[in-house]
Automatic annotation (TrEMBL):
Subcellular location: Membrane
Residues annotated as transmembrane: 7-28, 78-96, 108-129, 135-156, 168-191, 197-215, 261-287, 307-324, 422-444
Assigned keywords, A-Z: Membrane, Transmembrane, Transmembrane helix
One function term, GO molecular function aspect: transmembrane transporter activity
Recorded GO CC terms: membrane
GO biological process: monoatomic anion transport
Record membrane topology: Multi-pass membrane protein
Source species of the chain: Papilio xuthus (Asian swallowtail butterfly)
Top-level taxon in the UniProt lineage: Eukaryota
Protein name: Sialin-like isoform X3
Length: 502
């Protein structure tokens, strides 16, 4: 008889949660290409039919708020749409932990996933209505993702013992799997239907997942109705107390953390990693279709290919690394983490940035190879964060992710101001950022537990001024141990003490 482990089901649900978050996050990168191309084709059709350019303006005025409104979205508006998601994600951090502690991280994930799925289904209607309604929908979807990601990490900490972390790393692979699948799913939708269907499909999947999440996942093993006594006892004996997000955040010594060089080196490392990944996800389809003149389906496949390679290589590297750590017979290699950072950051950055010296534009081969090499650093941020601060890993990792997601805002707005002729400089600049971030960690990064990990930030207690009152025992006088005198004074002091009490 096969025993169903509830913690395995929780891991599968978290994998699917990461998968759908990143599908919703990057589906606009593919759909926007087709939206713009559709509008251009309609402009050419109307112009050839009427023979006058003013008819285009009349059609636009009479149908404003419909699909023809999309063709007037310039590069700046497109950049604003890409950055809106990351703005919502970064704004969510100050408030998510309070809600998560009140209603539980499971309900935070379920409600946020439901809202995100519904808004994804409403995305075509908001695009038809007005640009800023579309912008607002993107901001709220980013807000929902900012609430879901750290809450799912908190749930996983309740269900996975520390020595089983390497067996559950596949749950985090939902991020790369979702990124890779986004471009393939959206391209398939465009082949068989129109772009609004892509938003409906992704939104429906996230709604169904959020319903299943609420019924199959609980905040902790003790609250799950279907867990076996054997698994519950095992998890209770192997998992220590997991503090709430709010308690962990308030007890974290943030003054010492913000002064820590190791913390900022890890922030810089994740910032460069997120910069190159977000750059390809956002602008890969546009770059391949508008500059290199590939079809939408070819561009989607080329954008998905490096993430497929990252998924395969990253899974192999993670398992090899944990096997190396747990096998005591293998000779320890000093600074092994920094060797992997060299492969994931320095080497890809050099491969692309060196094109600044040659009259060549980065093609799909070099971009695919460079992004695939970043697999050596897959999950390195969270793992290094766990190594330097096991106590405050969730709080510190969330701040690091927030800082890393600001790269999505910067990348979107910077590229939106540029034209096609400067795409070579854009990719070389992205690679230089990755290179410099990797070098920064090689010089100043650390992988040992930091001294501030064992320090708790206790809130200051209020000190009240009190007026000292004379004690009844102050009337006692020292005397010689003469019996008669001693008993006389003792009886006087006793009567005086009783009178004060009365």
């Amino acid at each position: 008889m096969i025993k169903i482990r509830i913690r395995a089901i929780v891991g599968i649900m978290i994998f699917l949660g990461y998968f759908l978050i990143y599908v919703v996050r990057y589906n606009l990168s593919v759909h926007l290409v087709d939206m713009v191309q559709m509008s251009k084709r309609e402009i050419e059709r109307i112009t050839l039919k009427s023979g006058r350019n003013d008819s285009i303006r009349k059609v636009f005025d009479s149908r404003k708020g419909t699909i023809l409104d999309v063709m007037f979205w310039d590069e700046i508006k497109m950049a604003q749409l890409f950055s809106a998601y990351h703005i919502g994600y970064c704004v969510c951090f100050p408030i998510f932990h309070n809600i998560g502690d009140r209603i539980g991280p499971t309900w935070v994930v379920g409600i946020a996933g439901m809202v995100s799925g519904i808004l994804n289904c409403l995305t075509p209607a908001s695009a038809y209505h007005h640009f800023w309604s579309f912008y607002l929908v993107r901001v709220i979807k980013g807000f929902c993702a900012g609430a879901m990601l750290p809450s799912m990490v908190q749930v996983l900490r309740h269900w996975v013992p520390p020595f089983e972390r390497n067996h559950f790393m596949w749950a985090y692979c939902g991020i790369t799997t979702g990124t890779c699948s986004t471009f393939l799913i959206c391209a398939a939708v465009h082949f068989y239907s129109r772009w609004p269907v892509g938003f409906y499909v992704c939104g429906t999947m996230q709604i169904l997942w959020s319903i299943a999440w609420v019924f199959t996942v609980s905040d902790s093993p003790r609250k799950h109705p279907c867990i076996s006594d054997e698994e519950l006892e095992y998890l209770n004996n192997t998992i220590c107390n997991v503090f709430t997000i709010k308690l962990t955040n308030t007890q974290a010594p943030w003054r010492l953390i913000l002064k820590s060089v190791a913390f900022w080196a890890l922030c810089v490392l994740n910032f460069g990693y997120a910069w190159i990944i977000i750059s390809l996800c956002i602008h890969g389809p546009l770059y391949y279709t508008q500059v290199l003149k590939y079809t939408l389906y070819q561009a989607s496949a080329l954008t998905a290919l490096p993430f497929l390679l990252r998924l395969i290589l990253g899974t192999i590297i993670i398992q090899m690394f944990y096997y190396y750590k747990q096998n005591g017979k293998i000779k320890r290699i000093k600074y092994i983490r920094k060797y992997t950072i060299f492969v994931s950051h320095v080497l890809p950055g050099m491969m692309i940035s060196i094109l600044w010296l040659f009259p060549a534009i980065p093609g799909p081969t070099i971009l695919t190879l460079a992004v695939a090499l970043t697999a050596a650093g897959m999950d390195s941020t969270f793992d290094i964060c766990y190594e330097i601060t096991p106590m405050y890993v969730n709080s510190v990792n969330t701040v690091i992710k927030i800082i890393g997601n600001t790269s999505g805002i910067i990348v979107s707005l910077c590229v939106g101001e540029n034209t096609v002729t400067v795409w070579k400089n854009i990719w070389c600049f992205h690679a230089t950022i990755l290179l410099l971030c990797g070098i920064t960690f090689l010089f100043w990064g650390e992988t040992d537990v930091q001294p501030w990990n064992s320090i708790k930030n206790r809130p200051r207690r209020k000190i009240f001024a009190a007026t000292a009152r004379p004690s009844a025992m102050s009337n006692i006088t020292e005397v010689e141990e003469d019996d008669s005198t001693y008993h006389t004074i003792q009886s006087q002091n006793k009567r005086s003490f009783l009178s004060q009490i009365r």
